[in-house]
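Section 5.1 Outputs to date
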Amino acid sequence: MRTIIFIFLSVFLIACGSNVQRNATGLEHEQKLVIIADVLVGHSITVAAIDNHIIKSKDLTDYATGIAGAADAADENRQILIITLDKGSHRLSIKSPTGTVLYAKEIYLADGQVRTIRL
């Protein structure tokens, strides 16, 4: 009996003296810019740290269905570019391969906001 009490007290004292571990989980708020157009490949984009980047097919995101599998037929065959940005104001400029400005505007992204631009 004495051995059992000794083992129990030893385990109890070791458990009380060990480190307390705390984990915190939560949502990560990312600000995203979603650009949807018939053709984006070959166009150049300038926003935040991205300066005059020529969009390639590997930069594009595949079309995904929306909430509960609801599809938007208008966007299904279009090209989609998603860029993660910091919150705040950003100057966005999209130019065609010939240098024509297709879109130029100052945009503001709040915490966790997703801004969609259709060209």
